[in-house]
Amino acid sequence: MEIYNYEHLLNRAMESLPENVVVKERFEMPKGVIFYEGNTTILRNLADIASRVNREADQIFKYLLKELGTAGEVDGERAVFQGKIPPTKVQERIERYVNRYVLCRECGRPDTKLIKKNRTLMLKCEACGAIHPVGSKGRKST
Question: The CATH number of the domain where 77 resides is what?
Fold first, then answer.
């Protein structure tokens, strides 16, 4: 049996930490730039939101389509939704996505990644090491 000293264990723990951890105080909930073009609703900064939360723009877009109950398409860095959707409704769905698929439930940091374990989608925090299943619905908010 090997006996570890404090310095050895501390060094081992420090080496296993990710290099670029985003500090929660600097993380701001992404705000959508939303406007109308005719009878469509445009989310101009979909690509920016995706890069800020470290997720694929396509995944966020599919989530928004489902939550908003409409059809649409990705047009470059923006999302185009059919119909006039209130900007507050779109922003609320973006925040719901971030709370469900980005922020860690333990430490609240955005330094997470989505992994699949068996057939379950899991949220793994790279800051604190917590792993949680991503609920299909989560808590309802009005």
Answer: 3.30.70.3150
Query: Is 61 within the bounds of a domain?
Result: yes
The domain containing residue 124 runs over which residues? 106-142
Q: How far apart are CA 116 and CA 135, in angstroms?
A: 13
Q: What is the per-residue pLDDT across 43-100, written as a single tens digit (0 to 9) for each?
A: 999 999 999 899 999 999 999 999 999 999 999 999 999 999 999 999 999 999 999 9
Per-residue confidence (pLDDT) for residue 2, from 0 to 100? 66
For residues 13-34, average pLDDT:
73
Q: Are 111 and 22 in contact (CB under 8 A)?
A: yes
- 22 domain-assigned: no
Which of the pair, 91 or 10, is modelled with greater confidence? Answer: 91
